[in-house]
Amino acid sequence: MSTTGLSRRNLLATGSAATLGLPSAGRAQTAAKYRRWEITDAAMPARVLDSYKKGIAAMLKLPPTDPRNWYRHAFIHVFDCPHGNWWFLPWHRGYLGWLEQTLRQLSGDPQFALPYWDWTKTPRIPAAMFDGVLDPNNAAYIAAFAAFRTHFAPAVQTLWGQFSPAQRAVLNARMIGSTNDLWQNFQSMFFARPNARGLTASNPALDPTTAAAVSIDTIRSALSDPLFAGNPDSADIGFASAKVADHNGGGDPSSKGILESQPHDNVHGAIGGPRGQAFMVSFLSPVDPIFFLHHGNLDRLWDVWTRRQLALHRPALPEGSDLATWQKEQFLFYRDAQGQPVSKTSAGDYASMTAFDYDYSPGSGEDQVPAAGAVVAAAQFRVFGAQITANAIGPRTPAAGTAQVPPEGLQALKVAQVTLDLQPGDQGRRFQVLIGAGDARPTLAGGITVFNHHVRGPTTFSVPLPPGLAPPAGQALNIQVLPLAPPSRAGLGLAPQAATRAVPLRGIRLVTG
To answer: What is the C-alpha to C-alpha distance for residues 8 and 12, in angstroms, rounded to an integer?
Structure first.
């Protein structure tokens, strides 16, 4: 069974584990009430997918005035979801947890728990996710945007009038100041059948760039990060991405750790398919039921990282005044299984899986949790800047840089931090990152998918360095950022020229540690 808790240092910072509803690190844990199974696990009860389908079908049939309606639940992601900052993980834990309770009730299965998809083990959409309402191209979903708007317009108008001042402030920070703004967002995020999901039953595999982004080497690199969150300008961005002032990120630079930059963003991009036309590339991505299996695996990896930190006697959450700032951040749009606003509105309410009393069947990355033992000091990070040799990514041209790393640094290369200067029209664009040593042929290290609620200004992505890089003495490491085929802009409601804009490369840093 999975266990979570607070390190001794965190306990000192908060006064007691009860502050966040977490058990102390050394106390025996009771079994969780619900288990989230990996979807390809032969031990998963057959009723799990049956109940998932029943619950989704029931939510799709609810009237648009019901907050539990399937599309209404996806609206919450548009209104409030954080990306590129240290609230990315707890917000999604709450989002999945409240949906799980709703599905439990509407499916009539009191033991239901969401399955998850271990894309490291199975880098393709599981065949079961093309069955019935588990595929958003199913006839139970709304076929086109015009019908969607006609069906939801009165309910959206009513909902807008019900928002509190605090909720309106969140929406304003996301440049949504009216129902007209909201509908413009929805139009750019809605994908008509048969393009609701870009990958198909006959072509379910993740592309090679995404396969690198979900590889076991990438997952191990993410799990080895010793900090929950770092500063945007620090050597270590952190496992959970970097600290910012609030979860809406307005005015703050977006800085993503390996977990968010690689498996999270690139799986979203890959399911958009070669043309980038599918719900998973937009912020209405929760319309696709695969969203919840994807985020379940990210949540599971947070639990793996937490248990690793505790076994190494390292902090599992932010520390000191950072912890207080992090835990009090407000999430104001969740609804419970009755469709009512929830009472748990603080990030700290979702610091532990005990918030919803579940655990996970084992998956990739479990080998990174050591047996509890002596304190192991975290590595010391060093940063080496790259000299930019090509400063923009065009439709067919790469950006590039070279970095000289001393021999002692080559033994501990960890991550390349690539900063791009983005505009809203870049949403959904995809790139691959190649890294080579000296004159050797470069290796595909990972990808960059532009997936954020604030696509404007500098955004830093973390790409783990391939193991074994060691250029001959005096030669540099070469880093290239190449464009993948740009998505069709028609589905995103953007001008065609937006996909051909040259994206400025603002910087590359290599981090050792």
So the answer is: 6
